[in-house]
Amino acid sequence: PMYKKLFIPGPTHVRDEILQAQAEPMIGHRAQEYAVLQAEVTPKLQRMLYTDQIVFLFASSSTGVMEGAVRNLAARKTLNTICGEFGRRWHEITKANGIPCDVLEVELGHGITPELVDQALARGGYDAMTITMSETSTGVMNPVEDIARLVYEKYPDVMVLVDAVSCMAGVKIEFDAWHLDVCLAGVQKCFALPPGLTVCAVSQRALEKCATVPNRGYYFDFVDNYKYYQKNQTPATPAISLIQALNRQMDDVLAEGLEQRWQRHVDMAEVVREWANRYWAMFPEPGFYSNTVSCIKNTRGINVEEMNAELGKRGAMISNGYGPLKEKTFRIAHMGDLTVDDMRWVTAQIGDIVGL
After folding, report:
1. How far is CA 176 from CA 77, 281, 301, in A?
2. Could you write out the DSSP letters of every residue in 229-257?
3. Which positions ≥6 away from 136 have C-beta within 8 Å?
4. What percent of the chain has pLDDT over 70?
5. What is the pLDDT of residue 87?
């Protein structure tokens, strides 16, 4: 079969050398070789997240760790912020675990602002809030730094849980300086690895709190995971091959340079936005564009599915709109190991197909 270069918001294009890194010989997860591997990769992840706190690795998709986060840290009442389908998922997860929760929801294409969070938390009784940093379904980037600062200063009892699934490793996230409590992401997006592994930073204060929370569950119990973390292990079997690939990829991320990496994602985003604004329209409100995925209004009324099928013949794939936005929008990811040239190429191909 012809393989398509993926411009979808995950899984993203994986370079051959990263695929190859998974083919290292198998090691025992309780053997010294594994502890050495985890001890090697963890500080690289900490550097990327500007933190010296805990960074866990879970053999799971991000959804599992979203569930783990609320089970570990939501004891009283949670505020779920929703600006799209993935914020809604965290609300569904919170409800499904029987945790009392309220919703702060904005219209699709809009972002969550510190003012809205302030109004909601002012009602009192909350001890956790969930926020999607880059809402994959709408292409909205929420101002997590400003929101977290507000929460830290005015609502110190509220744990800030961040889904950075479609932006971690593509945008700057200063875990310590922003006072985040949980920040998680699967590796199949900006990390540009195959799926199956989630990276999750956890603050010291969150670790202390979860020790007091009953019924944290088993697989994602932060307290249990921390016991093993101190020995450079995980309680259950880790995704060894993916961690070997992650270790290799983190060397490349750090070799590129963090500031250069964040800038490359901005540069790619700007190519797509300029093209979108010239021929279509951006879906999110200005000021809230994600640097890792652009959601574009289908102002020309094209058949997105047919266009994508045609694009497939040329060796690429983008995404239709998500959920209620299907065919009303389409999404182009600019994340991971893609380049500005890739973005120029894929937008030119779409232009050629639809006759721009």
Report:
1. 24, 36, 45
2. HTTT--SSPP-HHHHHHHHHHHHHHHHH-
3. 9, 10, 84, 85, 86, 165, 166, 293, 322, 331
4. 100
5. 98
My answer on whether omega of the bond before 11 falls inside 30° of 0, hence cis, is: yes
* Packing angle of the helix pair 258-279, 240-256 (nearest 10 deg): 90
CA distances from 224 to 183, 212, 218, 220 (A): 18, 13, 8, 8
Q: Among 83, 34, 87, which Cα is nearest to 233's?
A: 34
Q: What gap in Å lies between CA 79 and CA 125, rounded to an integer?
A: 10
Task: Tell me the HSE value of 175 on the side-chain side, using a 13 A CA sphere.
Answer: 29
Burial pattern 203-241, b for ≥16 Cβ within 10 A else e, equals beebbebbeebeebeebbbbebbbebbeebbbeeebbbb
Below-50 pLDDT ranges, the chain: none
* Sign for the pseudo-dihedral over CA of 82, 84, 90, 95: positive
Helix, strand, or coil (residue 217): coil
d(CA 228, CA 156) in angstroms, rounded, equals 29
Phi, psi of 80, rounded to the nearest 5 degrees: -100, 120
Strand duo 54-58 + 319-320: pairing? unpaired
Q: How far apart are CA 100 and CA 170, in angstroms?
A: 33
Please write the tens of the pLDDT for every residue from 302-320: 999 999 999 999 999 999 9
* Distance from C-alpha of 44 to C-alpha of 189, rounded to nearest angstrom: 18
Pairing relation of β-strands 101-105 and 78-82? parallel
Q: What percent of the chain has pLDDT over 90?
A: 99
User: Which of 292, 81, 66 has the alpha carbon at shortest distance from 185?
Assistant: 66
Nearest CA to 245 out of 78, 14, 4 is that of 14
Instruction: Give the start-end residues of each E strand in 195-311.
Output: 198-202, 281-282, 293-297
- For residue 139, is it left (φ>0), alpha (ψ between -120 and 50) or beta? left
Burial of 174 (0-12, 13-18, 19+ CB in 10 A): middle
pLDDT of residue 231: 98
CA distances from 74 to 64, 158, 212, 215, 348 (A): 15, 9, 11, 11, 47
